[in-house]
Amino acid sequence: MAELDLVAPILGHVGDGNFHLSLLVDMADEAEVKRVKALCERLIERALAMDGTCTGEHGIGQGKMKYLAGELGGPALAAMAAIKRALDPDDIMNPGKIVALT
User: Fold this and answer.
1) Residue 14 DSSP class
2) Which of 19, 22, 45, 46: disulfide with 12, CB 3.0–4.6 Å?
3) 91 to each of 15, 82, 87, how far by Cα in Å?
4) How far is it, in rounded angstroms, from Cα 46 to Cα 32?
5) Is-contact 55 64, C-beta < 8 A?
6) What is the band of 21 on the pLDDT scale with cuts at 50, 70, 90?
7) Bridge-partner residues for 11, per DSSP?
8) Which residues, at least 6 apart from 19, have a Cβ–Cβ distance to it below 8 Å?
9) What are the domain boundaries of the chain?
10) Which residues contact 42 (CB under 8 A, 6 or more apart)?
11) Is the separation of the CB atoms in 91 and 81 below 8 Å?
């Protein structure tokens, strides 16, 4: 955090491997936003390199979708998309999250 000049208290239940950065970001400061995005990418890449997950405990959402293929592979994502299409053919339950159906 010091190297990137960011403020981000760390909270979590680290015993089971979960920690959370509470990033305090001035969204009007483009340079700060860029540093935060770089930090998030670095954290995810490090987690994956250590056989961790990009998902965290709260799932994928939209921000981390691009990392899921690297973690699970294409066949797993295809299976998830098939299940999503079968259970939610109109894509009304959390549309645009976890796997892209387009």
Assistant:
1) G
2) 19
3) 36, 12, 9
4) 21
5) yes
6) confident
7) 20
8) 10, 11, 12, 13
9) 1-52, 55-102
10) none
11) no
